[in-house]
Specification:
Length: 404
């Protein structure tokens, strides 16, 4: 089996796991390695990965800033559907994986590699997301998942392997996070450590992006978000690129203690997992987008979207971003957004986001002459409601007569 692999593209962070994987791939498969490191807004320098890869003998090294593509082509389309998994999770990790899979395959094609590799474990969702994406885009690609093959099943074994093979590993900073963390421009997640006990409250020191609601400013802040065809394009009248807009919302949300979640979720592989998430900008954006739709979308279109959303969310969570059913649903969702244009005003205060106004100059379906509690000057004939009610009550009346 190992003789079939000539070149592998490795999703490489430069940390302990992927540095060990890089050497292990060479030793096990005797193949050439191409490394790919993506900047998707995780807030850490990615360039040091280049020096580490060079030190380990890698000649083809890809380090790319994908933040704009990530927000524009993955996060924003997901938010057009108001997507939430299991009623709480804004899918910050899930939505990043199809982009990484896409670039892994593109680089494999560019470099003539016949395999890709990743550092996801055999217990989690990410292995599924990476590999489903890869197979959807390159059906015959070979996938190497070391955590499902090797016997390096603990940090101690990884460190011992690194030491015996001369792999440079930076010592973990004293006082560093005891949690398994994953960050990108949409969110940061925390797992492991004391969080493995669902009853254990997260330490305040764990959170990186948000202040506690109790410590947030005592004065509320009002902001305005402008939408064009369902996507946010400006904050307080200032046009921003997708990545810059999300970064600004993260800053505003973090300042006001918005976007913390503590969730027990159902992983696709079958187990329950407890995770904590910070999604300050996404929490604000979700509230604003729903408010914009409330003014500009037809009732039945809104209800149809709400019915489809849990299915759409599950597809993203389980790794089916490139599936035909997700693409078909996206076409429908995007078609509904043509008239989702206007401005939403929100109040940010101590962990909460409240809508205080919404307007759409061209696409509002709110007709004040009909909705008013004052004299509507004949715009709505209230007598029409009697027949409407009786027709809708007909089946209820028939059932009631049968029971009596």
């Amino acid at each position: 089996m190992t003789q079939d692999i000539k070149k592998v593209v490795l999703a490489y962070s430069g940390g302990l796991d992927t540095s060990v994987i890089l050497t292990w791939l060479k030793d096990t498969y005797h193949c050439e390695i191409v490394t790919f490191t993506a900047d998707i807004g995780q807030g850490e320098e990615v360039e040091p990965a280049r020096a580490k890869a060079q030190q380990l003998g890698v000649k083809e090294i890809y380090i790319e800033d994908l933040t704009e593509e990530y927000i524009r082509d993955f996060v924003f389309p997901m938010f057009r559907a108001n997507t939430i998994y299991e009623g709480e999770y804004l899918l910050g990790t899930s939505i990043a994986r199809p982009l990484i899979a896409k670039r892994l395959i593109e680089i494999a094609n560019e470099t003539g590699a016949d395999a890709i590799s990743h550092g996801a474990t055999g217990k989690g969702n990410d292995q599924v997301r990476f590999e489903l994406g890869a197979y959807a885009l390159k059906p015959d690609v070979k996938v190497i998942a070391p955590w499902r093959e090797w016997d390096l099943t603990s940090r101690e074994k990884l460190l011992a392997y690194a030491e015996s093979n001369g792999i440079p590993i930076e010592a973990k900073r004293k006082g560093g996070s005891p949690y398994s963390m994953d960050a990108n421009l949409l969110h940061i997640s925390y797992e492991g450590g004391q969080l493995e006990d669902p009853w254990c409250e997260p330490e305040e020191s764990m959170w990186r992006w948000t202040v506690s609601p109790e410590a947030a400013p005592d004065t509320a802040e009002s902001i305005e978000i402008e939408f064009n065809q369902g996507d946010p394009i400006a904050i307080n009248g200032k046009a921003l690129s997708p990545a810059s807009l999300m970064a600004k919302l993260n800053e505003l949300g973090g300042k006001h203690g918005i976007g913390r979640d503590d969730i027990v979720e159902n992983r696709y592989v079958g187990m329950k997992s407890r995770g904590c998430y910070e999604t300050p900008g996404g929490t604000i954006l979700l509230k604003a987008h729903r408010a914009m739709e409330s003014l500009t979308l037809d009732r039945e279109v809104m209800h149809l979207k709400d019915e489809l959303m849990p299915r759409y969310a599950k597809l993203i969570y389980n790794g089916y971003w490139w599936s035909p059913e997700r693409l078909a649903m996206q076409t429908l969702i995007d078609q509904t957004q043509a008239n989702v244009n206007g401005v939403v005003r929100l109040k940010l205060y101590k962990g909460s986001v409240s809508v205080t106004g919404r307007k759409s100059e061209k696409n509002s379906l709110f007709d004040e002459t009909i909705a008013t509690f004052e004299d509507d000057a004949g715009a709505y004939n209230q007598k029409d409601a009697e027949g409407f009610i009786k027709l809708n009550a007909l089946r209820l009346r028939i059932q009631a007569k049968q029971r009596s």
